[in-house]
Amino acid sequence: MVLARLRPALAAAAAFLTMGVTGCAGWGGSDAGAGGAEAIDVLMVNNPQMIDLQKLTAQHFTARTGIPVNFTVLPENDVRDKISQEFSSQAGQYDVASLSNFEIPIYAKSEWIAPLDGYIAADPGFNQQDVLEPMRLSLTAEDGKVYGQPFYGESSFLMYRKDVLEQQGVQMPANPTWQQVADIAARVDDKVPGMNGICLRGQPGWGQVFAPLTTVVNTFGGTWFTADWQAQVNAPEFKRAVQFYVDLVRAHGEAGAAQAGFTECLNNTVQGNVAMWYDATSAAGSLEAADSPVKGKMGYVAAPVEKTKSSGWLYAWSWGIQQASDKKDNAWKFISWASSAEYEQLVGRELGWSRVPAGKRASTYTNQEYLAEASAFAEPTRAAISSADPRNPGVQPRPAIGIQFVDIPEFTDLGTQVSQGVSSAIAGQMSVDEALDRGQELADDVAERYRSRL
Amino acid sequence: MSVTDTAPVPATRTEAGEPRKPRKPRSGALLSLLAWVVGILFVLPVVWMVLTSFHSEAAAATNPPSVFAPLTLEGYRSFFTGGASPWPPLLNSLTASVISTIIVLLLAIPAAYALSIRPVKKWTDVLFFFLSTKMLPVVAGLLPLYLFAQNTRLLDNIWLLIVFYTSMNLPIAVWMMRSFLSEVPVEMLEAASVDGAGLAKTLRSVIAPVVMPGIAATALICFIFSWNELLFARVLTATVAQTAPVFLTSFVTSQGLFLAQLCAAAFVVSLPVLVAGFAAQDKLVQGLSLGSVK
Q1: Which residues of B lie inside 8 Å of A (Cβ-Cβ)?
Q2: pLDDT digits (tens, 9 = 90+) for B182-241
Q3: Are strands A156-161 and A298-302 parallel, antiparallel or unpaired?
Q4: In total, how many domains does chain B have?
Q5: Which domain does B130 fall in, by range?
Q6: Do B99 and B49 sit in the same domain of this protein?
Q7: What pTM did the predictor assign?
């Protein structure tokens, strides 16, 4: 009886099993992957610009070139894990991956990604010279070859509420120093109820608090390592910079600063909880979005400085081709399209100019349609990226490329561990000296490994 | 209400020591109230997920939450038509779960038979051996398995997941089926053999009807475990054999809002398990109350 009632279910299961066995080519594993021999597989981070790309690819790239593209999209931390797993083992499952300018020189040194110079030379339409110079520089490895093409890029600058500063009779200089910014923060702090002077990241993480903080360290004359690999984390300049940052955010910073990252500061600024914010240029797009309450009220000036002429950081989500890929030609065709000026125009026409993956090409900033949409922040963004110097961001020579990071594989761990002490200092649970003395030991461990190779 | 009633709970045994019949009005009401509270606590997050899936992204992200925000199908629309098609991952998950569950049952039932009805020598050692395979943390096996898959060119192949899911669920299924099979009264088997029934006849007409709810429960558990497995699927698949849980994580982004769409996706992905659970509900209640937990 029970069996009789279950019989249809069993029959269905059997039918499914047969279907699964015979029909597996449709979705089951096969060596060629989905979409045939021409198809390429792309692994990328789930950011809105990437999702737009995913939507436009079939109609505008595959239709023209006959190359189907299979995307795998993952959140940022997951994608980093998956990419390092895939590329370090050279598994060859993915042809292209979204890599940042932190990974590209490191991966290039390990020969996990393929040099692109040959493709660039054979593809004059791509117009490599149009790519902003700091971007090109940061995606070039020590051997002088280009290993990545930027999809979109950013620097850092100071964003402030024009209306609030005006009310208090404060004038924002075009190139402020950090001391000027601290003074302005003190003057506007709490003048509007519930509005703090400035938002600065305090959340632990090499890519969270240490992104803005390392630029402060740079311009205060500090560095993580000297050119001959001496750790400098508790050197006077490094200490003075961190002390300044911690004091500023503790005195006039946002509520809950020790846990505030990019997202929290964006919310604080949009909701009018802070008068200034020093962070990524890409934040301006959200601040000036049509539904933003602070649209049109924001001013943008260069990253504050102390001893250097500029101090903005440089970050770019870029494309790299896996060395083990056997479809490198098709992979380049995809990159050449996705990173092109034409693609930016396509996004502008199809999805709106505010969604253009900007910050990588000079031509973007002469495009009248883009400027009409992004006039408030386009020029400060271009200026910030153009003035960034990833090889020489401070007052002394560096052992590795990078502005807001040191481009060595150990930095993610080192930066994150030291950042936990800094975050505790922001929360008032530890002194800056204590945090940095601990950091110095960690940094020295790393430095020693490199010293022994000199 | 009976909850506020402070009268002493009646003793469960009479003075003679015989069990007293449970008094419905007092303890019964209390117990059912407790069951309802626990039930609601368990269901609430799911209800919240479903509700959020019908909100707009902006309404889903507010704090405090806006419960009465207008409902929209936007989350579902972008799940099905937004970016990548959800059907290949769903079909992959279905393939992996259904096939591995069938293989598990085909292997676990004979094994359990040999451990309960006609126990092999040292059957307790055998049972413990089965269990010991579950003691290694899954993550400890991940790297060797990845390298194995890479060298055998089985990365991103759904059949690899089927093999892994089968071996992961087999010990549990053997244990469950053993406890169900040991419920079959020895007298019934003796009676069948006295009546001249052979092994096949005994299996079909005596054992099957008794343990069918147990098989249903075991199958459902194996199906759910395979359907929800994320760790192996995330590491071992790429674009071709990607399963639904891996696809789900792709909605999380560090820039922009995703909660409503993620909830819609999570609800759609939970549907097959819910449907299977409802379809087998009466079997499950019998099955899960069988065996050692009776």
Answers
A1: 82-84, 88, 91-92, 94-95, 98-99, 102, 146-147, 150, 153-160, 204, 208-209, 212-213, 234-235, 238-242, 249-256
A2: 888 888 888 888 888 888 888 888 888 888 889 999 999 999 999 999 999 999 998 889
A3: antiparallel
A4: 2
A5: 85-293
A6: no
A7: 0.80
